[in-house]
Amino acid sequence: MRIDKFLKVSRIIKRRSVAKEIADKGRILINGKVAKSSSDVKSNDEITIKFGNKTLTVLVKELLDTTKKDDAQRMYEITSETYERDFKNE
Asked: How many CB atoms lie under 10 A from the CB of residue 8?
């Protein structure tokens, strides 16, 4: 499954177009390698996504073509969520 579709179906990112844009800017890594929006995702892959000052790392558990809101979290497990501090305001 393509990374942009996985991120949308799992509801990590709400829109596939946004997921594609983030991936094409080099802000998504799959197993430590920069991913493009067309990169394939498999079970047990580690995905790291950089959102502004937040970095989210998830482990792919299951690939589903469609999900209901309650089932989306079965697709992944959050392994790390870090925030960079903003030193400008201190």
From this structure: 19
pLDDT digits (tens, 9 = 90+) for 63-89: 888 878 877 888 899 999 999 876 555
The CATH-assigned architecture of domain 3-84 is Roll (3.10)
The single residue listed with the structure tokens 């497990």 is: 77
The first and second tokens of residue 12, run together, are 């990590």
CA angle 58, 61, 67 (to 5 degrees): 100
Domain ranges of the chain: 3-84
The pLDDT of residue 90 is above 60: no
b/e code 12-26 from CB counts within 10 Å (16+ = b):
bbeebeebbebbeee
